[in-house]
Amino acid sequence: MCSELDSAEKASVNGGDNSSSATGVHSQLNCTNDVVLQTLRCVVDSGSSKGQVRVLLDAGSQRSYILEKTARQLSAEPVGEAEVCHFLFGGVKDVRRHNLYKI
Predict the structure, then answer these.
(1) What is the dihedral of CA 29, 34, 39, 45, to 10 degrees?
(2) Domain ranges of the chain
(3) First to last CA, the chain
(4) Helix extents (H) in 1-103
(5) How far is 39 from 44, CA to CA, in rounded Å?
(6) How far is residue 85's CA from residue 96's CA, in Å, rounded to a whole number?
(7) Is 21 left (phi over 0), alpha (psi -120 to 50) or beta?
(8) FRET label pair with 55: which of 9, 19, 21, 93, CA 20 to 30 Å apart?
């Protein structure tokens, strides 16, 4: 699975014995740091205009988010505001007000 590993490294990962019929499975072996999220392209309607956008699907998220730039491109008008508390690494707590849009 890891094309970057040459045969010597693969042999050391598998215990160095290529003659054995048993092979080891190492779930901790990570060849890349890329995270692949499900994506799709769709047409969104803000009421005043429509536009094609790319959507990232995050099953762990409890809300949907839109970039301010995308909301401006769609001429979307805010329908309200929400105070969102962001908990960041290192115990930092950041509370910000964000516009709400009906898309």
Answers:
(1) 150
(2) 1-34, 38-100
(3) 41
(4) 7-13, 68-73
(5) 15
(6) 6
(7) alpha
(8) 93
- Residue 33's pLDDT is what? 76
| pLDDT one-digit tens code per residue, 32-83 | 777 778 999 999 988 888 999 999 988 888 888 899 999 999 999 999 999 9
Residue 102: both structure tokens together: 């009906």
Q: What is the pTM of this model?
A: 0.56
Look at the block and give the residue holding tokens 């094309």. Answer: 3
Q: Distance between CA atoms of 28 and 95, rounded to whole angstroms?
A: 36
Contact status, residue 36 vs residue 57, Cβ threshold 8 Å? no
